[in-house]
Write a structure and sequence with these properties.
single chain, alpha/beta, Rossmann fold, eight-stranded mixed β-sheet, 11 helices, 17 strands
Length: 451
């Protein structure tokens, strides 16, 4: 790919963003101004600085650009803001036969070929990854940093897919390429040094859409079924705009106007939006799909549809975990070098390697009637940096998609980082360990797994 010319202004703006993001959180709070709170959620200090800088920038929104201009803008931002490349043992270019011609792909792996061990539950796992960009922008380079992070932290191979983009190749071209890439990965996994039974799919935004679509298509027999799906703030429904579209219509990086621009390029035939290959939330039957881990951002127009899809998967009996990161913005998967909150969010999703072995997305499953509300005793302990470290019992209320914010003690601390303790599948939950990472954290706990 030809090198992109970057202006002095673009370099200066990126340098300011990087410098501010490296400041201590206390300094970021002071510079960001009064904390932004919407829907009971508080924007992370780094996210608030990014929003403030975006408002000061002269860069036009995608809806005011041509596709080529928008692609250039995205490549420039990726080149300037994603930081040094993480070193990996394998970074290889591949070509996948596709329905519209060769599909470019790039394979990432932290370990040399043939080094996976049987004792590692992720050993030999391969994630077929579809980049975001509204089916119009994005490529192997814009998501190189994200894929390197995934390979390094999940301990699996990552096959990044350079699927066809609209408007040159409108729907269903991207969906067809996504399915072809999954089929190719399964067929060639062993040759590449991976286990064909441990193929997962994943993606962010439009790429999350394609991962969900490829999983549905595999169920229909178009490709081998994946063992797991990682859906990062996915586009799930091009038909209905849920409340988060209006709440975060502008001012939070991704805008509703940009989403309309993406949709119009990808789906020139508006009726196609009702098809599940465009809107997986419109699929008539989600039963039997691979376990899913769904991440959403609190300040994102796509938040509600991603959570609606997680709810639909869980209702269909699919082992599903939903994790909303309250203070983050859309595109946090690409902000790991810039934003410690984004880095923590992505690392949290990848820490349990059993996902890649086709295991459920949590070790223990809470079983109860759909829609029921239950109260269970839990314990929490503060971070070891807190001298008042101790235990206390408190009620936690959960439903089919998550748990309410938990407060315990007069200071009303919100606790973070769920871990299961001791029970076997089907047993009553004796306790859940909750660790507070800082006194400033306000994270709504989510992601209780249901069947």
């Amino acid at each position: 790919m030809a090198e992109i010319a970057i202006s002095a202004r673009e370099r200066v703006e990126a340098g300011i963003a990087i410098g501010l993001a490296r400041l201590p959180l206390a300094a970021q709070r002071a510079l960001g101004g009064r904390p932004i709170e919407i829907d009971g959620l508080r924007l992370h200090p780094t996210s608030q600085l990014l929003v403030k800088l975006d408002g000061l920038s002269e860069a036009a929104g995608y809806e005011a650009l041509t596709p080529d201009q928008a692609r250039r803008q995205t490549r420039v931002r990726a080149a300037l803001l994603t930081g040094p490349k993480l070193a990996l043992a394998r970074v290889e270019e591949h070509s996948i036969p596709g329905p519209g011609g060769a599909i470019g792909a790039r394979l990432y792996a932290a370990a040399p070929a043939g080094s996976a061990t049987a004792g590692d539950p992720a050993g030999g796992g391969l994630l077929v990854y579809y980049h975001g960009g509204g089916h119009v922008i994005g490529d192997l380079e814009t998501h190189d940093s994200a894929c390197r992070f995934l390979a390094a932290h999940a301990g699996v191979g990552v096959l990044s897919v350079d699927y066809r983009l609209a408007p040159e190749h409108p729907y269903p071209a991207a969906a067809e390429d996504a399915v072809a890439a999954l089929a190719w990965a399964a067929e060639n996994a062993e040759r590449l040094g991976f286990d064909p039974k441990r193929i997962a799919v994943g993606g962010d935004s439009a790429g999350g859409n394609l991962a969900a679509v490829a999983t549905l298509a595999a169920k229909a027999g178009d490709a081998p079924e994946p063992a797991f799906q990682l859906l990062i703030y996915p586009v799930c429904d091009y038909v209905e705009k849920r409340p988060s579209y209006a709440t975060f219509a502008s001012g939070y990086l991704l805008t509703a106007a940009e989403m309309d621009w993406f949709r119009d390029h990808y789906l020139p035939d508006g009726d196609a939006a009702h098809e599940w290959r465009a809107s997986p939330l419109r699929a008539p039957d989600l039963a039997g799909l691979a376990p899913a881990y769904v991440l959403t951002a609190g300040f994102d127009p796509l938040r509600d549809e991603g959570e609606a899809y997680a709810r639909a998967l869980a209702a269909a009996g699919v082992p599903t975990a939903l994790r909303r990161h309250d203070g983050l913005l859309h595109s946090f998967a690409n902000q790991t070098a810039l934003h410690r909150g984004a880095r923590d969010a992505m690392a949290e999703a990848l820490k349990d390697k059993r996902h890649w072995a086709g295991a459920p997305v949590a070790e223990y499953v809470i079983s109860y009637a759909s829609g029921a509300i239950e109260t269970i005793p839990v314990r929490y302990s503060m971070d070891v940096r807190d001298p008042e470290d101790g235990w206390c019992d408190a009620p936690i209320v959960y439903n089919s998609l998550g748990v309410t914010p938990l407060t315990c003690n007069a200071d009303g601390l919100h606790l973070y980082a769920m871990q299961w303790r001791n029970p076997r599948p089907g047993d009553p939950i004796a306790s859940i360990t909750l660790r507070q990472t800082s006194r400033e954290a306000r994270v709504v706990l989510a992601g209780v797994v249901v069947r």
